[in-house]
Amino acid sequence: MIRHIKHRRLAHDFGLNTLSTITMTESYLMQRSKRYTDYNHYLRQLFGQRVQKIAVDAGLSCPNRDGTLSDEGCIYCNSKGSGSGLWAKGKSIREQVEAKKIGAVKKYKAKKFLAYFQSYSNTYAPCDRLRQIYDQALSCEGMVGMAVGTRPDCIDAEKLDLLESYAKDYLVWLEFGLQSVHDKTLSLINRRHTFQDFLDAVGMTRDRGIRICTHIILGLPDEDRQMMLESAKKIAGAGVDGVKIHLLYVIKGTALDRMYNTGDYTPMTQDAYVETVCDFLELLPKEMIIQRITGDPHLDELRAPLWAGRYRETFNLIQETLETRDSFQGKNYTK
């Protein structure tokens, strides 16, 4: 399969390899440095250099937090919605971006950046408000696009029209938190939406020039290996462009923390997680962009498993296991 980005202004403004079309061909997929199509390599191929993601907190909420659906949130979500809490501290979008750019330039020599709207649901506001926050981030020097994290039940045609307008000039990823394809699990973790809601959202988003990513969590309560791999199979055919694979870890003070303390939840072992990730990758089409293969929790918030705090170790074990198994993304994929 061949993917295209057909935006002349995007190619011209950001120094891409051709004026009209960037093509990710089979040769690109075969030349990737890992045994899967990783996000950093994809961005480097697209823009000709490193592109650094900058997480920003837009101060938005979530229908699963503000009482619209629930006031409890998902069982694993902390009080900051997996974000930094910088908006609540009075930091504007521009201030957050400019401050983080300094570190990215110093550490990675980065000159191009993606704004990542991470905290809570970043399409959960009127379009006028969304336009303000998106504009503020994209107006910062060096911005080549944005990734917008949200829920499948927090988009509609008007919001997609807005995102599509940016996709004419920027790289735009819309990231849907799904976590599992099993409705029983979604109910148990208090997601308050269904797998069909996700499929409907993907269907609305496709063919608008917006790249679609979905988040999947491995190790959810009562899910065995077969159920986790069923998620891989269904995501493979869902029409998305990328996936983030996360480990379910226990954050202090969450509902999951209470389940862990009473013995009602046991986290995955590191070995089981590594093997499952490799199995998961084998079931995905080889052109799908793998944006993440494990989580990276704040150590002061982490309750369990403690190995989840050793990101680099787990990352390396996944690479080594793929090598040992002579495994790679798409090995067991069937269309």
Strand order of the largest sheet: 3-4-5-6-7-8-10
Per DSSP, the total helix count is: 12
On the 0 to 100 scale, the average pLDDT is 90
- Can you give the helix content as a percent range? 25-40%
Strand residues, percent:
15-25%
Q: Overall 3D geometry?
A: globular
What is the number of E strands?
A: 11
Structural class: alpha/beta
Outline the biggest β-sheet.
Answer: 7 strands, parallel
Structure characterization notes:
The chain is of the alpha/beta class. It contains twelve helices and eleven strands. The chain has helices at 8-13, 26-31, 39-47, 93-108, 127-138, 157-167, 183-188, 195-205, 225-236, 255-261, 270-282, 311-324, and strands at residues 3-5, 22-24, 51-56, 112-117, 143-150, 171-179, 211-218, 242-247, 250-251, 289-292, 302-304. The strands form three sheets. A seven-stranded parallel sheet has the order 3-4-5-6-7-8-10, with helices on both faces. A two-stranded antiparallel sheet has the order 1-2. The longest helix has 16 residues, at 93-108.
How would you summarize the topology of this molecule?
Blueprint lengths: L2 E3 L2 H6 L8 E3 L1 H6 L7 H9 L3 E6 L36 H16 L3 E6 L9 H12 L4 E8 L6 H11 L3 E9 L3 H6 L6 H11 L5 E8 L6 H12 L5 E6 L2 E2 L3 H7 L8 H13 L6 E4 L9 E3 L6 H14 L11
Parallel strand pairs: 3-4, 4-5, 5-6, 6-7, 7-8, 8-10
Antiparallel strand pairs: 1-2, 9-11
